[in-house]
Amino acid sequence: MSSFVARLLYWSPRILATCFVALVILFSLDESGECFGESALLPPMGALLSATGITLALIITWRREWIGTVTFSLLAALTAWAELTESSPSWAMLIIPLTLLVIAALFLANWVKRAGVRAALHIGPAIVPLLLHEPEAPNMRP
After folding, report:
1. In sequence order, which ranges of the chain are alpha helices (DSSP H)?
2. How many whole angstroms separate alpha carbon 101 and alpha carbon 57?
3. Taking the domains of the chain in order of start, what are their residue ranges?
4. Distance CA 35, CA 135 (A)
5. What pLDDT band is residue 63 in, cutting at 50, 70 and 90?
6. pLDDT band at 125 (very low <50, low <70, confident <90, very high)
7. Burial class of residue 38 in the structure, from the number of CB atoms within 10 Å of its CB (0-12 exposed, 13-18 middle, 19+ buried)
8. Is the confidence at residue 140, as pLDDT, over 60?
9. The whole model's pTM is what?
10. Ramachandran bin of 129, using left for φ above 0, alpha for ψ from -120 to 50, beta for the remaining angles
């Protein structure tokens, strides 16, 4: 795999998740609608709370791709369940969990690619140590 593709695979879920958080924050600015006073603060706070959760998930999963796969898959399932259990679910709102699933799939692809490179270089005896320990970069001093 070329260096460009490896970098693209590494950075794409992180950049997509960051853009997704920015989009959720942007939509939260338009949530108040016709409300005034204290009741105008509740709808944007819900959207900002979800943006905070996604940001925390991204911070936790920055170095551990397998945690990103699990976390963003669970966020997608939770978001889809919350949308589909409403009294009048909108199928258009399933775009949000689908975006989270794409981010999870990109984290999974990056983790599988990195695990394959480690196995080819005989780094780590099995998959379990790969899950528990992230090897440091080798010292490149001459």
Report:
1. 3-28, 42-60, 65-84, 95-120, 127-132
2. 14
3. 3-132
4. 52
5. confident
6. very low
7. exposed
8. no
9. 0.70
10. alpha
